[in-house]
Design goal:
Layout: E1 7-17, E2 22-27, H1 33-36, E3 39-44, E4 51-60, E5 66-71, H2 77-81, E6 87-91, E7 112-117, E8 120-132, E9 136-142, E10 148-152, E11 160-162, E12 167-170
Amino acid sequence: MINKNEWLTVGLITSCHGINGQVKVKSLSDFEERFLKPGMRWLQKENEPPSKIELISGFKQPGKETFIVKLQGINTRNDAEQLKTFKILVRTDKLPKLKKEEFHLLELINLEVKTLENDELKTIGKVINLENEKNNLLIIELFKNQKKVLIPFVKEIVPLVDIKNQFVIINPPNGLLEL
């Protein structure tokens, strides 16, 4: 379950765009309105506390998962360059409500990872983090050797997610856990 006082990173400011203080944001969210709809947002630099800032406008770059965003008080290219590597956050208690079988990716962290071997479920590790570039990847730490492996989060490899009972079942191709 999601802790109500936590933050979820939904975007990363990767660079400035133009000379009027716009920034380029790499989306880590399925909800585009987070970068399009004006309103208050939260920014975080490295491990500093998040701070409020108002999103004035935004648009999605055609054919990409990036957005060009204008933030209140960021009016020059130099201002925008200062925000490079900042995270755009939302509070986990403000996450959209989902349908019964849906879940937020953040809820996968700390779930046990199980495989089906000889008709028995065997716990092999836990999800310690997520990576989201073009595809979602689960970062799993294996119990047997504390090795970290990346597992593509696709139905063929992760056929079952059980948030209520705190585990996922994976069906990795041969050799994936040995990489």
